[in-house]
Please model this.
Amino acid sequence: MAQRTATSCNPQTWTSYVLAGETLERNCEALTVHVGGGAAKEPELLDPETNPAERLARRRQAGFALYGALGIGREDRYARGRQYLENFQFFGAPHVVVITVAAELCEYGAVDMGA
Model:
């Protein structure tokens, strides 16, 4: 099915890496130090400048559900920050697949890869 997915020009310029063991641990540590050290957010794909009310409501609902399930109150900034860093620990997953795409393809590479 993926072979028949429409792409900008079917470049298939992605590479995938499976991280596990010490390699995964080193990457998690480096990511956590980088983000936890106050690194500036430099996304390759920009967030939308605005969110319509419906999308914003779903986003908030998901956040309240997540932090509520974890017993983290909105006012507990320390616990929220600690939970945020779990993103960079891949939530304890034993294996992680990292997929890269050629930078010159910009957003098109991400769309093709996602498709």
Remarks:
- The mean pLDDT is 87.
- The chain has four helices and two strands.
- Residues 53-69 form the longest helix (17 residues).
